[in-house]
Amino acid sequence: xxxxxxxxxxxxxxxxxxxxxxxxxxxxxxxxxxxxxxxxxxxxxxxxxxxxxxxxxxxxxxxxxxxxxxxxxxxxxxxxxxxxxxxxxxxxxxxxxxxxxxxxxxxxxxxxxxxxxxxxxxxxxxxxxxxxxxxxxxxxxxxxxxxxxxxxxxxxxxxxxxxxxxxxxxxxxxxxxxxxxxxxxxxxxxxxxxxxxxxxxxxxxxxxxxxxxxxxxxxxxxxxxxxxxxxxxxxxxxxxxxxxxxxxxxxxxxxxxxxxxxxxxxxxxxxxxxxxxxxxxxxxxxxxxxxxxxxxxxxxxxxxxxxxxxxxxxxxxxxxxxxxxxxxxxxxxxxxxxxxxxxxxxxxxxxxxxxxxxxxxxxxxxxxxxxxxxxxxxxxx
Length: 381
Ligand code: R2B
Ligand code: URA
What we know:
Layout: E1 2-3, E2 6-9, E3 12-13, E4 17-18, E5 21-23, E6 30-32, H1 35-42, H2 64-68, E7 73-74, E8 79-80, H3 86-90, E9 95-99, H4 102-116, E10 138-141, E11 144-148, H5 153-169, E12 176-185, E13 193-200, E14 207-212, E15 215-220, H6 225-233, E16 243-250, H7 270-282, E17 285-289, H8 292-301, E18 305-315, H9 326-350, H10 367-379
Parallel strand pairs: 9-11, 9-12, 12-18, 13-16, 16-17
Antiparallel strand pairs: 1-2, 2-3, 4-5, 5-6, 7-8, 10-11, 12-17, 13-18, 14-15
Helix pairs in contact: 4-9, 5-8
């Protein structure tokens, strides 16, 4: 396949990439890939953007049944196209950030609010939009959605079906999805930030397998390489930890599926475990977690740019149990969120959409007087 003179075969380019800049073979001028070129690299099976997006960049629904339905109930989000004005509520979304737990995603919402200077009207707080589903939590801070996805491929898969449909109903253009999570490192100590370049399953295949009507399908699990490079560039050389890129393994289980010796069952030896971990390490795997395969496959199928950024909780070449104290784990889990926050802030800055002034939440003019007023209020009985 050829696109704008760039040969593409099986999704691989042959024109020599260097630092994200591609050499144009005719005149050797550095050539930064256009969106269309990156597109043809990511979707060798699709001829043009129309297959996965509408011309204005909004998410094309690849299921004709939805348009024929009277309303679409997004059951696990406690939202619906008949009950809610989804364009009004979500039409301005640009970034969808997902992570495992409701608490972490609430905290992320507050952090990103401070980072991008988003103000809430005085006396209000963020609300969990999906509270009444009792499944996932969802917070909205201006153009950012922060959603918990639970643990494992089935949980993140259900959520992605509904969030992708939400993007379609809300007519969101060119959304960008992030998974911010935790993982086990392979040859990387606890606290290392890992940006996935590729994702593979436990047998090193980069496809999501699912059984539909009794037949097993394979969906390519691809992430956006350019986005991964941009995130890596957001790392601060002063950060007291490493930020690396590499291949992520995604498994269906935390214990036996990740070669742990400490599950309720274990039918292999420590030697078997180490042989396996060393072999996947040799083939480029730098971390193991449990959602990236579905995350990459479903976003890719929907034509949505996506990245996975995780922090390691331990080096699996050295052990199985997560032993770091809670305060340390809490600090480590902030690390990938910082990269994503910097990326979002930079994007909004570039677009002139950063609102660092305005009104809304409590604005302090004089910290000294503010403290006095607070103390006075506290002692008033
Ligand atoms: C990382 O951590 C969780 C298991 O403890 C799982 O959701 C994952 O991918
Ligand atoms: N999450 C995983 O899936 N594996 C680990 O080892 C740590 C966190």
